[in-house]
Design brief:
By secondary structure, the chain is an alpha+beta fold. It is 39% helix and 14% strand. The chain has helices at 9-59, 95-113; strands spanning 72-74, 118-123, 128-129, 132-133, 145-150, 170-175.
C-alpha cells in the first residue's frame, strides 16, 4: 500500500505558527514606525515654533525683558491662552503689543500642535543636565536667551516619559543668537 501525498496535521500547525509569528513581528514593526513618525512630527512642530519665536525675539529685542522673558506657558495649566488686547490687525501697534501678540501666537501653536505642551523663554547657561534638556533656567544677565518647547510624551510601553524628578523634559531648546545680554 502506497503512502498518501499531502500535509500532516503537524506540518500545517507549524506553518500556521510561523505565519502567526511573522504577522506579530510585522505588526510590531508597523506600530514602532507609527510611533517614530508621530514623535518626529512633534519634534518638527516644536523646532518650527521655537525657531519662529527666536526670529521674533531677534526682530523685537527691545521687548526681551518686559515681555518675552516672562513667557512660561503650560498648556495643561492654561488650556486656552488669553488673547492680547490688540492683535495688530486693523491698527498699527507698538513694539510691546507686537511682542504680546508673538507670545500669544506661540502659546496657540504649542496648544494646537503638542500634547499638553509647554513653552518657556529664559536666560539659561546650563540647558543640559545628565545628557537631557531641562526646564529650570540658570538666569543671569550674561546667559544666552533660550526658547524651550516640550510636550508630555510617552514611552513605548505607554507610560509617561519623565525625568528624574518625575516631570517631563523639553523636546527642543534653541538659543537666540544675536540678542545682546
Amino acid at each position: 500500500m502506497g503512502r498518501a501525498a499531502g500535509f500532516t496535521l503537524i506540518e500545517v500547525l507549524v506553518a500556521v505558527l510561523v505565519l502567526a509569528v511573522g504577522l506579530i513581528g510585522g505588526t510590531a514593526m508597523q506600530l514602532h514606525a507609527m510611533r517614530a513618525r508621530h514623535e518626529s512630527a512633534l519634534l518638527s512642530t516644536a523646532v518650527q515654533a521655537a525657531t519662529t519665536m527666536a526670529d521674533r525675539i531677534r526682530a523685537n529685542a527691545g521687548q526681551l525683558g518686559d515681555v518675552y522673558l516672562q513667557l512660561d506657558y503650560d498648556a495643561a495649566a492654561e488650556p486656552v491662552p488669553g488673547a492680547p488686547p490688540g492683535q495688530c490687525l486693523a491698527d498699527a501697534c507698538d513694539a510691546s503689543q507686537l511682542a504680546r501678540l508673538d507670545v500669544y501666537e506661540l502659546k496657540r501653536q504649542v496648544r494646537a500642535g503638542l500634547p499638553a505642551g509647554r513653552a518657556r523663554v529664559c536666560r539659561d547657561a546650563a540647558m543640559w543636565q545628565d545628557g537631557r534638556l531641562r526646564w529650570p533656567c540658570s538666569g543671569g544677565p550674561a546667559a544666552p536667551v533660550v526658547v524651550k518647547i516640550g510636550w508630555r510624551g510617552k514611552n513605548p510601553d505607554g507610560t509617561p516619559q519623565a525625568d528624574a524628578d518625575g516631570g517631563f523634559v523639553p523636546g527642543v531648546a534653541i538659543a537666540v543668537a544675536g540678542v545682546a545680554p
